[in-house]
Design a protein that fits this description.
heterodimer; A: about 120 residues; four-stranded antiparallel beta sheet; about 0% helix; about 50% strand; globular; B: six-stranded mixed beta sheet; 11 strands; about 45% strand
Chain lengths: ~120, ~110
């Protein structure tokens, strides 16, 4: 079945630095990927829709200059948290849909835990 | 606006008891509803979706447009059902955006 891989699974960084998280669809192509954020014991909040070859679509309240998204190929989307601060510490999860199946089902990555000191 | 409401944060039942996880939605068009499950230390995965009208691991969910609900049910809970359950809604359009409810933690006691 479809597999979505995220890297790194866990990253710790100092305040003020930038962190890049990768999301890859391993055995399928995805023109669209979705980035979610999950706080401890809370639900997933959609941050943005990553579109291959074009600009990402951000949800209301999400700073596009803070969370840079690049979807350079049909199998890779990256989320860069710029000038990270402790309040950006969270669990970031990406998802993608295998267009080939025709099913309207999203496959999720295992998530990337960001801790900003 | 799209909204998914799961009123219960925690549902604790004994093994063998019936389970109903509530989900209500708000959407003006024709929605697609899903249930996703997250077992301990595992990634989020699809449990079932309303268009399939299938039973997965003994769970079923029926879309009730009149009540705007998509409750998840299982007649006899098992300990391995303990997990976090999220109801999700996909509205119309080409973006395939999925909006999640706040989730319900199901704890099945032995």
């Amino acid at each position: 079945g479809a597999v979505v891989s995220q890297h790194p699974s866990w990253v710790i960084c100092k305040s003020g630095t930038s962190v890049k998280i990768e999301c890859r669809s391993l055995d399928f192509q995805a023109t669209t990927m979705f980035w979610y954020r999950q706080f401890p014991k809370q639900s997933l909040m959609l941050m943005a829709t990553s579109n291959e070859g074009s600009k990402a679509t951000y949800e209301q309240g999400v700073e596009k200059d803070k969370f840079l998204i690049n979807h350079a190929s049909l199998t890779l989307s990256t989320l860069t948290v710029t000038s990270a601060h402790p309040e950006d510490s969270s669990f970031y999860i990406c998802s993608a849909r295998d267009l080939a199946t025709g099913a309207n089902v999203l496959t999720f990555g295992a998530g990337s835990r960001l801790t900003v000191l | 606006a799209q909204r998914v409401t799961q009123p219960e944060k925690l549902l604790s039942v004994f093994k063998g008891a019936p389970v109903e996880l509530k989900c209500n939605y708000s959407y003006s068009g024709s929605p697609e509803l899903f249930w996703y499950v997250q077992y301990s230390r595992q990634r989020l995965q699809l449990l079932l979706r309303h268009i399939s009208r299938e039973s997965i691991k003994g769970f079923t969910a029926d879309l009730n447009k009149g009540e705007t609900s998509f409750h998840l049910k299982k007649p006899f809970a098992q300990e391995e059902d303990s997990a976090m359950y999220y109801c999700a809604l996909r509205g119309g359009g080409a973006t395939n955006k999925l909006i999640f409810g706040t989730g319900t933690l199901l704890a099945v006691q032995p």
